[in-house]
Amino acid sequence: MKTTILSILAMLCVVAASAQPTNVQVKKYGAEPLRFSTVEEWESVHRPVIYNFFQKEVYGYMPTRQVPMSYKELCSGPALGGKAIRKQVSIRLEGMATPILVLMYMPANADGPVPAFLGMNFKGNHQIVDDPAIIISENAPKGKELGEDPTRGAAASRWPLDMIIDAGYAVVTIYRGDVDPDFDDGFKNGIHPSFYAKGQTAPEAHEWGTIGAWAWSLSRVMDYLETDPAIDTKKVAVIGHSRLGKTSLWAGATDPRFAIVISNDSGCGGAALSIRKHGETVGAINKSFPHWFCDNYNKYSNNEEALFVDQQGLIALIAPRPVYVASATLDDWADPEGEFLSAVAASPVYELYGLKGLTGKKMPKPDSPILGGHVAYHIRTGKHDINSYDWEQYIKFANFHFGR
Ligand code: GCU
After folding, report:
1. How many CB atoms sit inside 10 A of residue 317's CB?
2. How far is the CA of 383 from the centre of ligand 1 (A)?
3. Which candidate, 30, 72, 196, 371, has a CA 20 to 30 Å from the CA of 355?
4. pTM higher than the cut 0.90
5. 3-class DSSP state for residue 1?
């Protein structure tokens, strides 16, 4: 009997092994459109290779070690004139001096779990809306003398809460500085030290930098959301602007629980193709922000030709989940055309799944979004920013994919 079970198991292993396409050669993808023969070939051969490249050479591996974490609901109550419920939760990680403060606004009239947009904010939860009940993080900028504006609601134009709540979505946000400060501190503060091995004082060349840490923390917020019955965690869109758009793409690539991924003006190291060297280059970004990527990424400074795969690979890692890439006309630094071409070059992977990508599409005119498929794109008139025009498109996209 035992022998029969073993031989059945052995046979199953052979079948599983032979399901792998053995004749597929992996060679450098560069910035080429990612065209493969089958979903199976993509998932078993190319996706793992591309994923490993981004982990090892770009954003750095996230830790595999578990660190004890706890959540605490701090307060909850009516907000936005009664149309929303505001909830604040702290996430504590062992080894971190301060908690990650999660701010949530949920439609008050919901009759069940609601879909949500989850994203980081730049300067503190209290800046997304002028609401005196929002707890100000100890890590938030404190004074104008630092060149920062500590005012409540200072970033409200980036978070059109009324529009989002009226559309039936929750907004969930955390402040980037609660996770890792955005300067080159040698990874002494923030989340990294909690994960160091004995005697370690900085991440290794292949280990996570700040963007990796930010993306990882969005997954930890998702862990919390999975315990909160108010949120429909099958319908969470991860969103970010600029450096936080690079972060939302990496969060989407690393965590399949994010059902939609939105990159707003993410540019170099985000959606834009690096090989074009238009606007910000890999060398420039590594010089100005040495903490964002892993140290291995320095190999590609002024050496973009050596990239095994360009940023279209990052977008493709999100497939088959819907992805939205957006640009702005005055944002030459982020290379709008490079962002569009990257979304186009990732599209064949979506098309392998029988989904609508952007293959064959031309760069659209300003303010003419290409919606309705699984890879969406728009270029908005105006500067590097995220505003209600952008959000309007993201809500339409989410409504379409969440069947609302
Ligand atoms: C700088 C940086 C960009 C980044 C942007 C931002 O401009 O060079 O890479 O996207 O800041 O986060 O606003």
Report:
1. 23
2. 13
3. 30
4. yes
5. coil
- Whether 273 and 311 have beta carbons less than 8 Å apart is answered as yes
The token pair that represents 212 in the structure block: 């990796």
Q: Is 112 exposed, middle or buried (0-12, 13-18, 19+ CB in 10 A)?
A: exposed
Distance of CA 395 to the CA centre of its chain: 17
- The residues near 367 (Cβ < 8 Å, ≥ 6 apart) are 378, 379, 380, 381, 389
Measure the N-to-C terminal CA separation of the chain; round to a whole number of Å. 53
* Ligand 1 centre distance from Cα of residue 282 (Å): 12
Torsions phi, psi for 375 (to 5 deg): -120, 115
Instruction: For CA atoms 296, 302, 308, 310, give the dihedral sign.
Output: positive
Amino acid of residue 191? I
Structure tokens at 18: 């032979």
Q: What are phi and psi of 269, to 5 degrees?
A: 75, 5
Which parts of the chain register pLDDT below 50?
Answer: 1-18
Among candidates 337, 402, 395, which has minimal Cα distance to 160?
A: 395
Burial class (CB in 10 A: 0-12, 13-18, 19+), 117: buried
Q: What is the CA radius of gyration of the chain?
A: 21
Residue 359 CA, ligand 1 centroid: distance in Å = 28
* 17 Cβ neighbours under 8 A, 6+ residues apart: none
Write the burial class of residue 16 (CB in 10 Å: 0-12 exposed, 13-18 middle, 19+ buried): exposed
Q: Does residue 267's CB lie within 6 angstroms of at least one atom of ligand 1?
A: yes
> Would you name the residues annotated as active-site residues?
242, 384
* 340-393 residue pLDDT tens: 999 999 999 999 999 999 999 999 999 999 999 999 999 999 999 999 999 999
218 lines ligand 1 (CB under 6 A): no
Q: Residue 233: CB within 6 Å of ligand 1? A: no
Q: Is 250 exposed, middle or buried (0-12, 13-18, 19+ CB in 10 A)?
A: buried
Atom of ligand 1 nearest to the CA of 265: 10
Which residue's structure tokens are 């004074």?
A: 143
pLDDT at 17: 42
Within 8 A by CB and 6+ apart from 111, the residues are none
